[in-house]
From TrEMBL:
InterPro entries: ARM-type_fold (IPR016024), CHCR (IPR055358), Clathrin_H-chain/VPS_repeat (IPR000547), Clathrin_H-chain_linker (IPR012331), Clathrin_heavy_chain (IPR016341), TPR-like_helical_dom_sf (IPR011990). Belongs to the clathrin heavy chain family. It is found in: Cytoplasmic vesicle membrane; Membrane, Coated pit. PANTHER family: CLATHRIN HEAVY CHAIN, CLATHRIN HEAVY CHAIN RELATED. CHCR repeats lie at residues 206-352, 502-641, 648-795, 799-944, 949-1095, 1098-1249. One of its GO terms (cellular component) is cytoplasmic vesicle membrane. It is a peripheral membrane protein. GO terms for molecular function: clathrin light chain binding. It comes from Chondrus crispus (Carrageen Irish moss). This is Clathrin heavy chain. Clathrin is the major protein of the polyhedral coat of coated pits and vesicles. PROSITE patterns: CHCR. Residues 1298-1316 have a biased composition (Basic and acidic residues). GO terms for biological process: intracellular protein transport; receptor-mediated endocytosis.
Length: 1379
């Protein structure tokens, strides 16, 4: 107590008091109390190294606890440890391998940090040491540790933050001691931060595009360390802008790689990312390195290009072909000359490809000169073959044909002449006829396609090649037989030969053309046997029959009979042929084919008008009549006379008469038409036409149109016409009197009075006619017309005289048009008269009731109703209601007990209670609705609710009812109505749903309770939309969950977490969600708002989400605070759970965590069990780690991935020679094995030497083992290996001897078998080389022509079957090439 008071008040001399008390307690063994005294000593007078040494000297207690640690624990409870105490505590914890305990004290700032403390902790925990250095502000060591742990990206930001000037090159040198990859990453990070090679900060606008950074200095730094790969990678990363000022550095990078790593330079140049380097220098280096393609790309001098281009045996031909596109046309030509001149056979194909591609630029003529100058005979042929398919130059095609024929490639010449449309046919024909090739197919193709058949036939006849003529017609193109026959006739060839030629192709020859050609030459009789043969074969071909018709006419063999009976010949062709010989035969031929124009022409020119008239009547063609009866026809008069006088009277077919009549009518010849009709009807002895109704009708109608004065005469004289129809036509022409006469003649009284009333408007004459006729029909018609004319009284009287009550509707309609009570009085009078005389008593009584109501005679209505009647009271009531006669309507509806219609009427009369009672009796939805709305408008809500309960139970009426209430602002009333309606048996889903919608708008506090109670009976999507509009998030989540829309529920909870989120509910929802994006979004949500619950969430989502994406999200989370791992350490449990899937990202993440934690056993287990990750990257990362166990893991990974050199180097550095031997044994590389053996001998590791000989016996070269043993005098250690080697060699030699002997025996058996097969095969004698064919055999094809086949657009000509094909001719050549 005194010491505490002295310490608290700072009394002088208190130090002595504390010292005494401390020593007293220490001597008594009360170490904790002594520590408390030291902690409270004034100014820390007792917290000295001596006190620490005193506690350190005390042995541990029975529980094994160190007294010194008790001392430090007491000090930490009372405050903060000073520098000396912190260092000592660190030494104690390092010794116990418990450094991680200090992390908590560092966070609580209870340790005074110093560089000594950081140095002490660094080997055990670099991350903790980094925190100590930061607090101690030992900036240089902070940067060193950042580089050591691989966080190079944080070096530059840290230096800028603390204002430390750093030298980039020094930092990179420092990083290279740990790892080349770390040095590269650091260099890139420094450049990203804008730190130059000299330590200066580059301005931000320059750092972005690297324009102010000395990349050359950084490149030199890497190169000085021998790190070519990293230097190149650095430049590739930072010289992407391809600036001109970087040209020198680009050259240095390419030069270094071309001299040391040509493959890398090749890749860089292929990427085409730099363009400012020294092209000539790089091109020269590329040429030396064997990269001839890149040399060509960078050389600009034509001499250099030609020199490099000579290496065609190693340059990709496709590249060379494309490279020529970069040259000018003249340079291309020079290069082609150089290539083909230096080695024609080897470079011919390449030169042909280049020339074919660039023919348009260089010029086909110049290239043909080049290839023609080559000593190799077929060079020009190959070039032309490559371009002929797409060339449009006629000279190219001609030269190709010429070259093909000269080389015996008749198949190619035949193909081009058959397919090409480009060559000059005249020139090619002349050439072929001059050279006379053995194969006639090219000449035949040209002449056949371009119309030189006549010349070809003359050429073949002249050269005595009639067999070719016969073969051409029979096998190549039978369609050209007519032209061939014509040419042969012109050459006076034997007619028997010509006839036989025609007969050989009689079924394929075009007969019409053949007949035409022979007809031109006056040799038609030559075809008689051919045509009769075709007819005898049953041919119906028009050309055949036309030809034989001409032959018969020419020979005068009963031609008229043939022309009239044969149905197949061409009438026009034969008619024109006959006209010069006999016009009548021409008329017969034209008539048989209905050739109207030709018939008219021949009959007009030869005055055959009688025949023409009969033809017109027989054809009965309106178009033909129109042409003949045209005003401009000079022969019309004579033809009309022939028609009227002879043609028509002689015919007995009415349709022909009708056709002629129509033609005259169409020609507007009424006079001639009337003349014709009078002749047929009035002046003929033919009773058929005289009594013909149609002709009489036509005569009257014609008179109506042409001469109305004669109509009355015809009406009275004729009596067999259609009176009613004719009268209608007369009415149309306003001949009313004639029409009335016709009706009167045929006793059509109703139609007659109709003419008087409707057309003549003569009511007096009509009344006289009615009195004269005195028929009910006439009086009724008169009465109706009088009513229509407004003569109500006269009309009713006429109807009464007619004694026909059927016109009662006319009376009613007349009364309605008048609309006055007096009119309705007349209606009552007539209807009472007609009431007992009509069948439709219902309509009549209904009209009587309505008329009385309209007149206001309600008493008489009651009387009428009380008596038997047939009226429709409901209809009458409806009409009264429509006319707002509500009292009358009430009377009528009450009489029929129609409460459905009575209720609206009572509403109109203001009797709401009565309307409700009527609606209840009617019990119809429409009635309830009308009464309900009327009560709402009158604010009779109690009655409205009674009616509304019957409305809302109908789904179709619900929304109208709700809208009606809402539009008038009665929100509470409609809610009460729906709540009352939920208890009804007929309550449906829409009622529950719409009540919920109304609650969201007007009673939101009751919404959740409503959802929980009635959600099963609601339309959940509509409620969800309503809740969203009202921003009721908790209710919305609940509805989404009940609707199984767990994704949407989760999104709502995430977006509106203050109102909607709770831990248990969210976990339940997200576990049932199906959308992965929602799950990832929930992970980010927990990272942002609930990180402490993140592991629980991930455990739930683990089976569904993609672990790689989750890890990416966790790495990015708070990376600025916690480093590259982000929140991954927090989720270690999740990673262990999902690692079973062996996913690369999961393995990488967990390995990073285990490395950071220093959990070596767990790391080894992870690497061994789950190997699906980038093992090489991890090995490079661990190979220079401070822990030897991690370096050993690095060697293991190198060995697994085939990086045996790195694995051996790591093992050698750590003197793990057993691991080194295992690595070299796994590699099975003799060179590596020998290098390691030499290393063992140089370092006197003889046992290791013996071990490697034993382990690598299979691939250790015996000569090298013997040499090493002799050089280092260790023969004893190598002797077991040599003994075993000699044994193996002896066994192999014996095995080789046996194998060689067996192989020789097998070869001899095979040779004998082959000889026997050749000797026994007779086909060798049958298909040997034919000397004549060998003479015509062509050169081998260098390549397929690139446009051959149908690509030339020409008409395909059939192959000539009797000559050798091109493919067969080339078979021996290809066989020779294969041999």
């Amino acid at each position: 107590m005194p010491t505490r008071r002295a310490s608290r008040n700072g009394f002088p001399g208190a130090e002595n008091l504390f010292n005494e008390h401390f020593f007293e307690l220490f001597e008594e063994g009360k170490y904790r109390e002594a520590a408390l005294v030291a902690a409270d000593s004034p100014g820390g007078s007792l917290r000295t190294p001596e006190t620490i040494a005193r506690f350190k000297a005390v042995p541990a207690d029975d529980g094994g606890r160190s007294v010194l640690l008790i001392y430090f624990q007491t000090l930490l409870e009372r405050g903060k440890l000073n520098q000396v105490e912190a260092v000592e505590l660190g030494m104690q914890l390092v010794a116990k391998n418990s450094v991680n305990i200090m992390e908590k004290w560092l966070k609580e700032d209870k340790l005074e940090c110093s560089d000594q403390l950081g140095d002490l902790i660094l080997p055990s925990s670099p991350n903790l040491a980094l925190a100590v250095y930061i607090r101690a502000k030992t900036h240089a060591k902070v940067i060193q540790v950042l580089i050591q742990i691989g966080q190079v990206a944080k070096v530059a930001p840290y230096a800028q933050k603390v204002g430390l000037e750093v030298n980039a090159t020094e930092l990179v040198n420092m990083a290279s001691q740990h790892s080349p990859q770390a040095a590269l990453e650091l260099a890139n990070a420094l450049q990203q931060a804008g730190v130059g090679a000299g330590g200066q900060l580059v301005p931000a606008h320059m750092a972005v595009d690297r324009s102010g950074i000395d990349h050359a200095a950084m490149f030199d730094t890497f190169m000085n360390r021998g790190m070519l790969q990293e230097a190149t990678a650095y430049c590739l990363d930072n010289l992407k802008s391809d600036r001109e000022e970087h040209g020198e550095l680009q050259t240095k990078v390419l030069e270094a790689n071309l001299m040391n790593a040509p493959q890398v330079a090749d890749v860089i140049l292929q990427q085409d990312i730099w363009h400012h380097y020294d092209k000539s220098k790089v091109a020269m280096l590329c040429e030396r390195a064997g990269l001839f393609q890149h040399a060509l790309e960078n050389y600009s001098d034509l001499a250099d290009v030609k020199r490099v281009m000579q290496n065609t045996h190693v340059i990709n031909p496709e590249f060379l072909v494309n490279y020529f596109s970069n040259l000018s046309a003249d340079d291309r030509l020079d290069c082609i000359k150089e290539l083909i001149g230096s080695n024609p056979r080897a470079n011919l194909q390449l030169c042909v490809q280049v020339a074919a591609k660039h023919t348009d630029d260089i010029g086909a003529e110049r290239l043909m000169d080049v290839f023609s100058a080559v000593k190799q005979q077929d060079a020009l042929f190959y070039y032309l073959q490559a371009i002929v398919g797409f060339s449009e130059d006629p000279e190219v095609h001609f030269k190709f044909i010429e070259a093909a024929c000269s080389l015996g490639q008749f198949g190619e010449a035949e193909r081009v002449t058959r397919e090409s449309n480009v060559f000059d046919p005249e020139k090619v024909k002349t050439y072929l006829m001059r050279t006379r090739p053995k194969d006639p197919r090219p000449l035949i193709n040209v002449c056949d396609r371009f119309g030189f058949v006549d010349e070809m036939i003359k050429f073949m006849v002249k050269n005595r090649q009639l067999k070719f003529v016969e073969g051409y017609v029979q096998r190549v193109n039978p369609l050209q037989c007519p032209a061939t026959v014509g040419a042969l006739l012109d050459l006076d060839q034997d007619e028997e030969f010509i006839t036989n030629l025609i007969m050989s192709v009689k079924n394929t020859v075009p007969v019409e053309e053949l007949v035409e050609e022979v007809e031109k030459r006056g040799k038609l009789k030559l075809l008689l046997s051919f045509l009769e043969s075709r007819v005898g074969d049953g041919s119906t071909d028009v050309g055949v029959h036309s030809g034989i018709a001409k032959v018969y006419v020419e020979s005068n063999v009963n031609p008229e009979h043939f022309l009239e009976t044969n149905p197949y010949y061409d009438s026009r062709s034969v008619g024109r042929f006959c006209e010069k010989r006999d016009p009548y035969l021409a008329f017969v031929a034209f008539k048989r084919g209905n050739c109207d124009e030709e018939v008219l022409d021949v009959t007009n020119r030869h005055s055959l008008f009688k025949d023409q008239a009969r033809y017109l009547v027989d054809r009965c063609s309106p178009e033909l009549y129109e042409q003949v009866l045209d005003d401009e026809n000079e022969n019309r008069k004579m033809i009309v006379e022939q028609i009227i006088s002879g043609a028509l009277p002689d015919t007995r077919e009415p349709n022909k008469i009708s056709g002629a009549v129509k033609a005259f009518m169409t020609a507007n010849m009424p006079d001639k038409l009337m003349e014709m009709l009078e002749k047929l009807v009035l002046q003929t002895s033919n009773s058929t036409f005289a009594r013909n109704t149609n002709l009489q009708n036509l005569l009257i109608l014609t008179a109506i149109k042409a001469d109305s004065g004669r109509v009355m005469e015809y009406v009275r004289r004729l009596d067999n016409y259609d009176g009613e129809d004719v009268a209608q036509v007369a009415i149309g022409e306003e001949l009313f009197e004639e029409a009335f006469t016709i009706h009167q003649k045929f006793e059509q009284h109703a139609l007659a009075i109709g003419v008087l009333l409707e057309h003549m408007k003569d009511f007096g004459r009509a009344e006289e006619y009615s009195l004269k006729v005195d028929t009910s029909e006439v009086w009724s018609a008169l009465g109706v017309k009088q009513l229509e004319a407004g003569q109500m009284s006269a009309g009713v009287n006429s109807l009464i005289k007619s004694k026909d009550p059927s016109s009662y509707m006319s009376v009613i309609e007349a009364a309605r048009k008048g609309g006055s009570p007096g009119d309705y009085e007349l209606v009552v009078k007539f209807l009472k008269f007609a009431r007992n005389k009509v069948k439709d008593i219902r309509l009549v009584d209904t009209e009587i009731l309505y008329a009385m109501c309209k007149c206001g005679r309600l008493t008489e209505v009651e009387e009428f109703i009380s008596q038997p009647h047939g009226g429709d009271l409901e209809e009458a009531g409806d009409r009264c209601a429509d006319d707002e006669l509500y009292a009358a309507a009430k009377l009528l509806f009450s009489a029929v007990n129609n409460y459905g219609k009575l209720a609206p009427v009572l509403v109109r009369l203001g009797d709401f209670q009565g309307a409700v009672e009527a609606a209840r009796k009617a019990d119809r939805v429409r009635t309830w609705r009308a009464v309900c709305f009327a009560c709402v408008d009158s604010k009779e809500f109690r009655l409205a609710q009674i009616c509304g309960l019957h409305v809302v139970v109908e789904a179709d009426e619900l929304m109208d009812c709700i809208d009606y209430y809402q539009d008038r602002g009665h929100f509470q009333e409609i809610i009460d109505l729906l709540e009352q309606g939920l208890t009804l048996d007929r309550a449906h889903t829409s009622m529950f749903t719409e009540l919920g919608v109304l609650l969201t708008k007007y009673r939101s506090r009751q919404m959740l309770e409503h959802c929980k109670m009635w959600w099963q009976r609601c339309n959940l999507p509509r409620l969800i939309r309503a809740c969203e509009a009202a921003m009721l998030w908790s209710e919305m989540v609940y509805l989404h969950s009940q609707y199984n829309e767990f994704d949407n529920a989760a999104l709502v909870m995430i977006d509106h977490s203050p109102d909607a989120w709770n831990p248990s509910g969210f976990t339940t929802v997200i576990a049932k969600a199906g959308n992965l994006e929602v799950m990832y979004k929930s992970i980010q949500f927990y990272i942002d708002e609930q990180p402490e619950l993140l592991n629980d969430l991930l455990s739930v989502l683990a089976p569904k989400v993609e672990s790689s994406r989750v890890i990416s999200i966790l790495r990015r989370a708070y990376a600025d605070r916690f480093g590259d791992l982000g929140l991954l350490p927090l989720c270690k449990g999740y990673l262990l759970k999902v690692q079973e899937s062996n996913v690369p990202d999961v393995n990488d993440a967990l390995n990073d965590i285990l490395i950071a934690e220093g959990s070596l056993d767990e790391l080894e287990t992870s690497i061994d069990s789950y190997d699906n990750f980038d093992q090489f990257v991890l090995a490079r990362r661990l190979e220079k780690h401070e822990l030897i166990q991690l370096r050993r893991i690095s060697a293991t990974l190198f060995r697994r991935n085939g990086k045996y050199e790195q694995a051996i180097e790591v093992s050698k550095r750590d003197k793990l020679y057993k691991d080194a031997v295992e690595s070299v044994a796994a590699s099975e590389d003799a060179e590596l094995t020998e290098e390691l053996a030499t290393f063992f001998l140089e370092n006197q590791l003889l046992e290791c030497f013996t071990t490697i000989l034993y382990t690598c016996f299979e691939f250790f070269r015996p000569d090298m083992a013997l040499e090493l043993s002799w050089r280092y005098n260790v023969m004893d250690h190598a002797m077991p290996f040599m003994i075993q080697t000699m044994k193996e060699i002896g066994q192999r030699l014996m095995g080789l001897e046996e194998e060689s002997k067996e192989k020789r025996e097998i070869d001899e058996d095979e040779k004998k078998k082959i000889d026997d097969e050749v000797n026994d095969d007779p086909s060798v004698l049958l298909f040997g080389l034919n000397p004549s064919q060998a003479a015509d055999a062509g050169v081998p094809m260098l390549m397929a022509p690139p446009g051959g086949g149908a690509g030339m657009g020409g008409r395909t000509v059939p192959q000539i079957g009797w000559t050798q094909s091109a493919a067969a001719a080339l078979q021996p050549t290809f066989a020779g090439l294969q041999q």
